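Contributing new records

If you add data, match the layout below exactly. Sequence lines come first and carry their own label; structure lines follow with theirs. Keep one chain per record. Anything else will be rejected by the validation script.
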Amino acid sequence: MDKNKLFKIGKPASYIINVAAILLVWLIMQSLISGGLINSYYQGILLVIGINIILATSLNLAVGFLGEMALGHAGFMSVGAYSAALLAKNAAALGFGGLPKTSLFFISLIFGGLVASIFGILVGIPALRLHGDYLAIITLGFGEIIRVIIENMKITGGARGLNRIPKLATPNTVYIVTVVTVIILYMIIRSRHGRAIMSVRDDEIAAESLGIPSTYFKVLAFAISAFFAGVAGGIYAQYIGILGAKVFDYNKSIEILVTVVLGGMGSFTGSILAAIFLTILPEALREFASYRMVLYSAALVIIMIFKPTGLLGTYEFSLTRLIEKIVNSVKHNKDNGTQSKKETDRK
């Protein structure tokens, strides 16, 4: 087929298609909930899927696109969780008592994300001077230090945990936050800043020689990654209603990292699919839930042996690209059919 005749979707139409797809998924989810097909149990699974998607895509920014091995994501998640929970719990005393629940939920998430990003900057500036194993050890140590500090603070409830947190998370609000998170992270990677981040990953010395300040972009990516980990923590706190620091131990960080590696380091689509799969898998195999980490480890070993780049590598799914491919395929088949008919008529 002549390349000039290929069907192409322009950018404005592409945005409209993507927005329509997001609204369609939301409408389907709403109709299933209102119809009773998605009960409170399945709504809980949807909320956890949203949390895990935010965690995986945000860690992918640091691990996949920046190329730094970070093992402290659970630490940033805990900081965001406790910050958002304390704000939501003490909303009246802090002057937010008159706000609608939805507004309070979003404000608490932003607050939790900002506090987590501050910790991300504080940890990132010294830690990102190191690479590979050293950075992984430092970030892992950070996560454990945060956990111990939380367990010894009165304001966080100490070892007994923080309870009576308002349960403000709903499937609708979590869906909005998840979609916005993925869009923001995707736009960052497609921007000049995103290209600079990837250039630091590919060759830091070459990037520096071209005038790209590698330390700035490393800390920026780390802080953004920490921000969304904090947002995920805030959702988790306001979904569960009770927080205990032990939930955010190194196993949680490993779990998030496995999700990123399984989906593909450098692919948000892969992170989303892996987060959905690894959330549903333990629920489907509930009898073997205690062997979750074993299953994760086995999946990681298998992926590393047969596909070291992860399931999707750096591939990103595009709805507009899929539509273009289908339309061009139909046109191609139609043109071939017309050509064959003409040749038959000539004979």
